[in-house]
Structure formats: C-alpha cells, structure tokens
Amino acid sequence: MSALASASADEQSPSRSRVLWSACAAHALHDGYTDLIYVLLPLWQKEFAIGYATLALMRGLYAGAMACLQFPAALLAERRLGGRSTLAIGTVLAAAGYLLLGFSGSLLGVAGALVLSGAGASVQHPIGSAAVARAYAPRARGALGTYNFSGDLGKAAIPAAISLLLAVMPWREAVRIIAVPGFVVAGGLLIGLPRLQGAKEDHVRKAARPQRRGFWILFTIGLLDTAVRMGLLTFLPFLLAAKGASQPLIGLALALVFLGGAAGKITCGWLGARAGVLWTILLTEGGTAAAILACIALPLVPAMVLLPVLGLMLNGTSSVLYGSVPEFSPPSRAERAFAVFYTGNIGSGALSPVLYGVLGDAVGPVWATAATAATAATILPLAIVLAAVSRIEDREDA
Length: 398
Prior knowledge:
This protein is mainly alpha-helical. Helices cover 86% and strands 0% of the residues. The longest helix has 42 residues, at 201-242. Mean pLDDT is 83; it is low at 1-12 and 199-210.
C-alpha cells in the first residue's frame, strides 16, 4: 500500500498512515452497508408482500438520505464538531440504523431504520476523502486511489458475510450481528484517527483560484463518468444474453467487470499521480469507449476475456477524479468540495440508468450500450479543457 499511497518515505509517517487506514476502514464499512441492502430486498419482498416499486423506494430512502446530507455533514465537520468526531458519530448512526432494522416489525420500521443508517453514511465520503487528501497533500492521488479501492473491499465483504449468516439464522438476527462492526469501527476512529487539522494558509491561497473554474469542469466529467458506468452495467447482461450467455455466465461476467474495476481504482490512482490527470483520463475514457464498442462487436468468448480490462478502464477514472478534487478547491473547504462532488455522482448514478433505459426502449440495448461509449468519448475534450484551465490558473498564480 505504501508504494501506491506515496512516493516518498516522509509521506508514510505514522500519523499519515493512521489517517489512511482509518479512512479506509470507514469507507469499507459504509460502502458495505450501502450494498448490503441488495441482499435484503428479496427477503423484504417475501415477508411484506411488496412490489418492485416499493422495494426501489426502500433502497431510495437510504440513498436519498446519504446524498442529501453530505453537504450538511461537511459543514458540520468544518464549523462545529471537526472531522474525526463527525465521522465517528456518522458511523455510529449507520450502525444504529442496522441495529434498529434488526428489531423492526413493520415496513415502516424498516423505512425509518434505512433513513437513519443512510443519514449516518452521508458523512463518510466528504470527510474521509478530505482527511486523506490533507494528510497526503500535495500528492494525494495515490492515497485517494487506495482509499477508493477500500470501498470495493467493503462492497464485497459485508454482503458476502450477511449471506453466510442468512444461511443459518433469520435476517433480523443477521442484521443485528452485522451492525456490531459499525460500532467497533466508530470506536476505532475516535481512538486511532488523529485529530484532523485544517489546511495551511499557503495551500488555501494556492488552491482557491482553480476552485472557481476547474472544479465545475471536473464535476461535469464526474457526472458523465458515472453515467457511463451505470448505463453500461444496466445493459451489459442483456448484451451478453443476446450473444448466448447463460445466467451463471452473466454473473461471472459481472464479477469479472467488478474485479477489473477494483484493480482499476487502485492502479489508476497510482497512474494519475505519475502521468497526470489529462493523460490518465484520456487513457481510461478512450479505453472505456473502445472496450465497450469491442464488446458489442466481438463474439461471446472474446468479449468475456475483455471484460476485466473494460472494468479496469471503466472504474479507473473515478480514482483520478476524486484525487483531483483537492487541486480544484481550497483545502480549508475540502469537505464541502468532496460533498458536492460525491452528491453529484450519486445523483448521476440514480438518474442515468433511467435515461439510458428510455433510450434502450427506443433503439434497443445494443445502440443504448453504444451510447455509453459515445458518452465516454465526450469526456475526452472536457479533459483537455480541464488541463488548459489548470495551466491558465498556474500562470495567473505565478
């Protein structure tokens, strides 16, 4: 991890390492809690006799609370409680929501518990990202890539853990057990996470000007990148089924994409720290567009072989983008910048499958999948504009 997080020995000081490890633990836990809901949805449908729309609403309550409260959580950390306390309290709330879920006896109780847990989850992305960015400034991209990768570990581990528990006990008991690690992580944050200090004034002055121009270009790239990812994952199973893939093979295909994506998050964070934002985005987004078109054109077996590479490109850009947020915002307001950035990405992730779905109904899944490649291609000129704006700002600062 040290090789990925930093190029210098100084950046691996105990304090910085504690920040990174603590933030990664929180990220893994919160992302695992977020995807845990997918495992429980079929059980709720059977127990409460509800339709797909109500199930989607249950998932939306958690995601909505998490998205809407990220910016208030960032302000709370900046102005009142500090990052460490806010992150620990949010983690307690996320775990408490699942604990209450384990005692719920009605659908209304389930909904309330999900809102509470989602509200707690709102603190993690802006505060954890800002903490890592400050600790490893001015070369934070590699560390943020590691932090980004840790979320995928949680998405894999926690749903898998509750699936094993569900094999031997009712879902309420399993959920109560899975809530316990949340309280443990919250206590570990209070004990192990150093006090999160604000940025130095010279860093604030240097970053304040780019925040006004470059940040919104970066934000737009993030929206489009998320749209490509969510749109492709929506249609990929149908594309593979049309090539003759069975249901188990489609499951394997998605696993290959996700494994490649996890590798892409950590690899491209490292690459962005060395090759720079522009060339990394051009490589990942250009590679994504090319790989999507290749998967459309190729027969089933070659397409399956290509899927890990597609996943690497598809998810790799996100680490570069997250790692660039501190460069386009004042470090003293890093929590706010990350909150805005993550909220936009969550919103894009919710809306883009609907828009691509409408397009798919009109032109079919193949052309809708091709549209995701076209969306990835539109990011390329935006990346060039972002690099140009950065150079202009550097000259103005000089």
